[in-house]
Amino acid sequence: MTLKLSLIIGLAITCIGLQALINHIYQIRIFKLLVSWLSHTFELDRGLVFGINLCLILTAICLVFGLSRFVQDGYNKITQKPMELIYLGHHSEIAQTFVNPKTGEYFKSLSNYEPPNLSFTSLGKIKLHVKTFSQDYSDSLQTLSLPNLFFRGLFYVWLLTVFLAFFHSAAVNAITLDFPAHPLANKKYLDALDYVLAPFSLNRYHALIVVFGTLFVLLPAEELYNKWQSKQEARYAFQLPTKIKPNQLVNGELVYASAIYRRNHNDDQKVLHIDTGVRIVIVKFNKLYPYPVYVSLKYHEYAHPQVTLSELKRKAAANENIQLKIQPDYSLALVDEDFS
User: Fold this and answer.
1) Cα angle vertex 74, ends 71, 78, to 5°?
2) pLDDT tens per residue, range 207-220
3) Tell me, what's the pLDDT at 232?
4) Is 102 in a helix, a strand, or coil?
5) How far apart are CA 288 and CA 268, in angstroms?
């Protein structure tokens, strides 16, 4: 299944599902409600209208793309034959590299849960993957496991409730202005919410519990499951090469360098990205293993003041070689003399 087809299916599911749900709740087609809402845009409070429209657009986009990915992942899980791939390290902060030892094919995989490997000991792990819509990308069977798909499905249901909460505000205003005979006309937001939830034996308090409670239960449960999965016994394709010893110097190709930022808010509640002083560097080694591998390292600029981020980025752009020292735990450390 191609990415375009999965997007079309995701859009179709979202449109058909919302049409059926809105029509059932309000007894008015969603198209009529939206036309009415938009036609009175300049008559209502502009801040309110802008906020509601923005939230509706964002949640609708998330639903379409989320359901598209959900359909794609379900299709891949059912149709694709699992492959045993060997983990060769992170080639960026969010992407991993794998190889199929039987065919020699290399695959990229987006890493949502695993941080970049900071040691040689992390390399060579065998994982079951399936191909995705792109020939160069694969997805872990752990990501496509039934519990993970279940958690994601619950998240999309939660996202749907958020969309409906904002849509309810638009619907009540539209009904009051253009459908005066409707039972919701001139009702306040919460009173109207009680009215539409009554057929489901629910009220405004149940809605609040569902919207906020589900998220507080869902996220920790998913995190606990992922931690449990990460602690499962792993198989490895190869051992540490004899050239990799503590205090040994090795040469590698610098392919990535970046600063790590943390988010903060100032007095005006604006989001600030503050440089932590920590740098992440990814180095590629072409001759140590049967395949090219990537090992990451983190350091604080205070520990290596002569190693500037601009110089690291220049070397990474040129794919220059740098010298590094292997630590007792088989992680890497910069050699200052290489930058003097």
Assistant:
1) 140
2) 778 777 776 777 77
3) 67
4) coil
5) 52
Report CA-CA distances (Å) from 8 to 2, 15, 70, 72, 216.
Answer: 10, 11, 13, 11, 32
- In the structure encoding, which two tokens stand for residue 331, read together? 């992680």
Return the pLDDT at 213.
73
pLDDT of residue 340: 60
Instruction: Quote the CA–CA distance of 88 and 292 in Å, as a whole number.
Output: 7
Q: What angle do CA 144, 147, 140 make, to 5 degrees?
A: 20
Comparing CA positions, the residue from 129, 21, 155 lying closest to residue 73 is: 129
Length of the chain: 340
Give the contacts of 267 (CB within 8 A, at least 6 positions apart).
none
Q: How far is CA 236 from CA 59, 202, 233, 338, 339, in A?
A: 41, 52, 10, 33, 35
Tokens 């359909």 belong to which residue? 71
Q: Residue 283: is it exposed, middle or buried by C-beta count within 10 angstroms (0-12/13-18/19+)?
A: buried
Give the pLDDT confidence score for residue 86 in this predicted structure.
Answer: 93
- b vs e for 94-123, b when ≥16 Cβ sit within 10 Å of the residue's Cβ? eebbbbeeeeeebbbbebeebebbbebbbb
Q: Which residues of the chain have pLDDT under 70?
A: 1-4, 112-113, 134, 215, 229-232, 264-273, 337-340
Half-sphere exposure of 314 (CA within 13 A, CB side): 6
DSSP structural state of residue 237: S
Owner of token pair 């959900």: 70
- Please name which of 302, 285, 301 lies closest in space to residue 293, comparing C-alpha atoms: 285
Alpha helix segments (H runs only) across the chain: 3-26, 30-39, 46-79, 146-178, 189-197, 204-208, 214-230, 309-317
Q: What percent of the chain has pLDDT over 90?
A: 12
Residue at 203: amino acid letter: N
Q: What is the C-alpha to C-alpha distance for residues 112 and 278, in angstroms, rounded to an integer?
A: 21
Cα distance between residue 294 and residue 119, in whole Å: 10
240, 122 in Cβ contact below 8 A?
no
Query: Structure tokens of 49?
Result: 């209208």
Q: Which two tokens stand for residue 102?
A: 């039987």
Nearest one of 56, 64, 70, 66 to 12, comparing CA atoms: 64
pTM: 0.70
